[in-house]
TrEMBL record:
Family that this chain belongs to: Belongs to the glycosyltransferase 2 family.
Name recorded for this polypeptide: Glycosyltransferase
This protein's UniProt keywords: Glycosyltransferase, Transferase
Known pathway: Cell wall biogenesis; cell wall polysaccharide biosynthesis
Domain spans labelled Galactofuranosyltransferase GlfT2 N-terminal: 11-150
Source species: Corynebacterium maris DSM 45190
Coiled-coil features, chain-numbered ranges: none
Amino acid sequence: MTDTTTAPEVLSRILLPRIGEPHDVRMLYLIEADHNKDRAHWGDRSSLTVPAGAEVSFQTYFNAFPASYWRRWSQLDTVLLTLTVAGSANVSVYRSKSDGTRVAVESRLITDETATFALELKNFEDGGWLWFDVTCETETTISEAAWCAPHAPAAQTMPDGSTVGPFDKRVTVGIPTFNRPADAVNALTELAIDPVVDELIDAVLMPDQGNQHPADHPGYDEAVAHFGDRFREFRQGNLGGSGGYSRIMYEAIADAETNSPYILYMDDDIAIEPDSILRAVQAARYAASPIIVGGQMLNLQERSQLRTMGEQVHGHDFMWGAAPHSVYDHDFAKYPLGHKRRPEDEKRPDVYDSRALHRRIDVDYNGWWMCLFPRVVAEQMGQPLPLFIKWDDTEYSLRAGKAGFPTVTWPGAAIWHMAWADKDDAIDWQAYFHLRNRLIVAALNHDGDVDGIIASLRKTTLKHIMCMEYSTLAIQLEAMRDFLAGPEQLFDVLETSLPRIQKIRQQYSDARVIESAAELPAASGAPGVPTADIGGRLGKIKKIPWLLKSAKHLLSKEDGRHHEVPQLNLTAGEARWFTLARVDSATVTTAGGTGVTFRKRDRDLAKRLWDETTALHKEIERDFDELRATYRAAQDRLTSREEWKKVFDAQ
């Protein structure tokens, strides 16, 4: 057993919701029993008063302890639960297995004292959480509760067998921003709210890449004044996410004064639970070997919803996807961490529960909405690739993973961010970067054949044709040509690619946003065209007749009258291939609901784009091995501090 004679150190605090949070968000923090006659109440985030006879559970996203992750990645074999009880309450500690089964660990009646539970981590090989429930004999106040390490962190083992550390509990936080001054100021303000987290922060770095500056926004001066000389802003051109985050890493490594052992990336358009910063830093400090610690993404619009548990890159087609055993869009308000199926529903695959959240998952990378890098990893791995946006975070983790520095997506360390489903990034200007950068990162990291990638590209090309997304196809042609041009021009086009791509898109009606479909004539209609999806296991088979009818329609000449009057007005969710492939025009609302695009079928244009696209697919397939060698030979230069310094000096 680990020596527990040294002073414990807080790993994560038991937190209460902010005052005024709605019920669904409170479910991320505590669950009050249905039979409670009176509600618990709190005046701050660390002290909870529970009425006599009431029960409260902390088997929740932010307050349960992800024990399996600590067992797998940390130096610890024991964790301490500490809490102060004013009154008399029974405190029951539980653990879960990887399938969500609950197991009682220890229960005590505690009266007016500070209690400590020493809890072993040996039972959490494949998954499981620790948590505690409280049943009050008298009105009781629970305060200063935390999950703690029994001792300070020890040295960490590097991939070559040498040791580094232990490291101080300090971090440099970097937040790149582009024309989101209100969001940037809010992010700075959030960092300053919590004094425990504020004490960890050596510096806050903010590359400002837009022309709407946070410095001109109300509240900026107060936020910056709080940090004093810890805050540094860098005005630069729009170098994209990779340019903003690369600037943060560059400046943090160059900062000999703070010499922060950790660098934390955060997006500007997020909301954060500040304790997540403490949790990420402590996970990194106590890791047996240096790891990259990623924060999970909660849905900013549905704040009780976990958007993604963790991600991987699929080996067959080199495309993002859910890591094995992970889930998307889990709503803790509907399905708390302890939610299980009824016994009679055990064999029904359509009945959902929370068991998947108890299994530990392993990932390939973590998005840079929140991601923490040990300085020793950043110094060895170099800078991000100059990719502007998309795939830079994936590439960095893949590169680091091959060098022996895995990425771990850490439950309970999280931000709220806009969900991907609420963006058009698969079809708007970002589609260029999605494809170009996917191919570049595949050339650097994919060692298998290219057949799966090409098959995937052909499938998405057909979908774009069917959905009249001609602007997307046009910029994807540019993406493939730029990939085939090789790595030498990546730095040169860092600032120029986006204006070039935007200019190309504006030649196509599906890229031009109209404020409202009301500006066009009323839809003429398309009788017999399906707008609702077919669900169930046989959905794909049932769509075969739709596919045949769609193919017949796509081969016919379009009716020009429908280019003046749309046939359908569709929401973003209704704009699916089996609908759009059966009409000659439709308006489609943007994902954000801010306007519509008027899509118009053009058979001859579609054929030309198809022919050009498939020709480039064949060229990529033929030359991929040679391109692999070329990009890999250039990797050191593309990720070097010296090359990035030239970019920053030119700003």
